[in-house]
Amino acid sequence: MFENLSERLERSFKILKGQGKITELNVAETLKEVRRSLLDADVNYKIAKDFTNRVKEKALGMNVLTAVKPGQMMVKIVHDELAELMGGKNVEVDIKGNPAIILMSGLQGSGKTTFSGKFANLLKNKKGKKPLLVACDVYRPAAIEQLKVLGEQIAVPVYSDETIKDPVKIALDAIKYAKNNGNDVVIVDTAGRLAIDEQMMNEIAAIKEAIHPNETLFVVDAMTGQDAVNTAREFNERLDFNGVILTKLDGDTRGGAALSIRTVVNKPIKYVGTGEKLEALDAFHPERMADRILGMGDIVSLVERAQEQFDAEEAKKLQKKISRNQFNFNDFLSQIQQIKKMGNIKDLASMIPGVGKALKDVDIDDDAFKGVEAIIYSMTAAEREDPSIINGSRRKRIAEGSGMTVPDVNRLLKQFEESKKMMKMLSGGGKLMRKMPGMRR
To answer: Phi/psi at 25 (nearest 5 deg)?
Structure first.
């Protein structure tokens, strides 16, 4: 999302980096470019101007003009101000209570229903909660059906009542149902419109007043740019919501909404949707986002995603197999499945400092492992267990069965052997891996 902004900001800092002698004029020139970069990213003019004024004040206050590396100093100041602009720190959704009630609001097409499903999935799998989804869009049967399909996919119950057309009653009945059935978080999905209208605002205000939610969340499509900010302002004036959910942050958008919305409504961005999969939902961390905008990667988020898929017992077993040189294609396939669960491959790569920039113009398909998996699935159980038995005729059969070529199979076998050697070397007979968290015996 922030590729263009990242590039423009990097060019801005080069004005300082390339100077042997730093002057106030150079700083002003750098900040002029920074402001231009923000405006091109669809950030509101006043916000961009105030931002660069604050950076200038801090830069001059920190004596950046006489600093040894003024370019680096400026990057740090801009980083800290970007993080502050987006809220400074992560703010969790309040899920205390029995049940906790979360009310969703937003325009039609903003991703409200999808977020409701993703959030229920996150609460169930990562927070140990027992959520209930509530279908309160009485105007669109398709919305109710969509929520039911999502509920089925994540094994979360959906409460709906298509015999009545009163969303307030449906919400209240759903809360009673939750109390009787042990559901500790109730997520109320409401109707949206293509544009803000009085009927919609009155309706959601009535629901809020009746159910007294822990939190009212405003869901907005980041790809609508400055319009997203304006819509957020209007909703906030009527609902006084608790936080913002930005969806479609993986899309081709300039990012102005993520940078502007916090300042305009003075409410934190709590979660961001980063893809179509039900797992593609991240808590919003302003500092980490500032890191990514400035090309510093986001190792913390990458490690967190890896830990979510990490199984200490499985890791111990795997370490033993590696140290005994018993690592096989079944293990290899299992590792691929874990990496895929972590999210979009290009998104994961962008979290590694420097890699995101290198892959900017590289098209990494989400099915990058498809060919590898096809080859492994075409092997017999014996071949997966002991790849050394795969001779020429077996390679030909595997290639035909997977729809790949013999050179593709040869390449995978070679990569597999190299991976085994590398893992064996890293394990050092197990000594190095035993020092890693979860690997101790």
So the answer is: -65, -40
